[in-house]
Amino acid sequence: MIALGGGWDELLAPLFADERYKKIREFLKYEYGNHVVYPDMYDLYNCFRFTPLADLKAVILGQDPYHEPGQAHGLCFSVKPGVPLPPSLQNVFKEIKSDLGITEPNCGDLTKWAQRGVLLLNTTLTVREHRANSHAGCGWQWFTDEVIKLISRSTKNTVFILWGANARSKSKLITGEHYILESAHPSPLSAYNGFFGSRCFSKCNAYLEKHGKQPINWDLNE
User: Fold this and answer.
1) What is the DSSP code (8-state) at residue 118?
2) Residue 156 carries which DSSP code?
């Protein structure tokens, strides 16, 4: 049995009981048993474990985990302490500095964001080493689409931050009283096409404050 805590077990119980999820589990048993897969299976659901549902303020959608050794640990865009910053994450930090004046951190571990109410959800939760998108067709898309729907139905005034075409395609799943922030992906290939200057971090906080919620502290140096 998966035990996530923080209100997620009750919300996600129908998904974990679904036959489609059971097929994902069988696929993962084979993959973890026969290949190197990221993140470590014990880190797989960290995005839920670190962000209780009642504390949820914002959702950032990634695509699939980093596929090189030592990087992925269950939070989208995040890398473990001591791992060099991936280019996309460097650009995220540049935009935060431009938007909020926050000094760029040296560490790419985003656990503090998760603990401050930011769900860092990849649309595919696992990947085989050195092979980007290698698990995209195993059923995770169904699972995470349903997670997005459940969050949108079960919470109010949540900010959904969608970077890039993959994430932006999920906007149709979001219903209810929420705020959707869309822009280009922070990848070096697209960051200058609308990510830089999007000011999504200050816009997120302004919306939260307008609806009586505490703004998110995006400063990883604190």
Assistant:
1) E
2) S
